[in-house]
Amino acid sequence: MKHRKGQLEMVITDLDGTLLPIDGSVSSTDFRTLQRLGEWGVCRVIATGRSLFSAKKVLPDDFPIDYLIFSSGSGILDWHEKKLLFSKNLTEEETARIAHILIMEETDFMLHKPIPENHRFLYYKTGADNPDFGRRCAFYQDFISPLESEFGIWKTGVGCQFVAIIPQNLSKFESIKNRLGDYQVIRATSPLDGKSIWIEVLPKRVSKGSSADRLCRMLGKDPARTVAIGNDYNDVDLLDWAGMGVMVENAPEELKRNFYVTSHTERSGFTGAVFFAENRKDWL
Questions:
Q1: What is the pLDDT of residue 109?
Q2: pLDDT for residue 4 is more than 50
Q3: Three-state DSSP class for 187?
Q4: What's the mean per-residue pLDDT of the chain?
Q5: 102 and 195 co-located in one domain
């Protein structure tokens, strides 16, 4: 790979299923590419749906990135200084309204606490069979509590985001999305069973793409000189925003039709995307 100074300014990648294979580790090739990008002065960013707590479980302190966009855009962290640069939460009034709608839709959900404690959450369970929901609750069993009500009022409080989990049912997803039109509603594929739909509900205009834009402008970078790499529906707005959007081969077919495609995550698709961007002359 050759770096042409003054062109590529920022590379932003999703984590799970893009840079980090499911049940695997970042390849040595991708790790070295991240190091080289740093040597070239290219800003390196991970944009993940994980909370800060969860991201730190898989990213050591010296991992070669510059910034972390976490919780689907709800927060931005300076990775070197470990300093929080931006965070956005839902108000108590907003969480109460969203919870009411999700309950009326008979939907299992988690309400995450405000940043930086948003690995903790309250949960609401309808009683219907939902193994993926149970699996996530079990994974965070030391950090969860049931959502309670008092005099018929749900005690939600301020929160970072909601994560509702439903089976593969697009009509139900669309129904919930339409009823929550005042908020940012993002679809993601479960990283646990690979098929359930996770519905993230965040403050309006909070997403991976919006936080990437915020960070880019904070740093004085040109959004047109950015590359973003992803693998799922919750990466679409990020890839749409970037100067070049790239999906890994293991992304859903309907998403790959709309973006450049690199190799599979398990075959260092991140490096393939960077190589592709560095060697094209018609997009910068």
A1: 98
A2: no
A3: strand
A4: 95
A5: yes
Asked if 169 and 227 count as a contact pair (C-beta separation under 8 A), the reply is: no
Residues 246-263: tens digit of each pLDDT: 999 999 999 999 999 999
Task: Tell me how far the alpha carbon of residue 89 is from its chain's centroid.
Answer: 15
Q: Are residues 161 and 185 in the same domain?
A: yes
Q: Provide the token pair at 32.
A: 């070295």
Residue 146: CATH number of its domain: 3.30.1240.10
In the chain, the percentage of residues whose pLDDT exceeds 70 is 96
Tell me how far apart the alpha carbons of residues 3 and 272 are, in angstroms, rounded to a whole number. Answer: 14
User: Can you list the positions of beta strands (E) in 3-148?
Assistant: 10-13, 43-47, 67-70, 75-78, 83-87, 108-112, 121-124, 144-146
How far does the chain reach from its first CA to its final CA, in angstroms?
17
Give the type of residue at 280: R
Q: Is 246 helix (H, G, I), strand (E, B) or coil?
A: strand
Q: Does any domain span residue 187?
A: yes
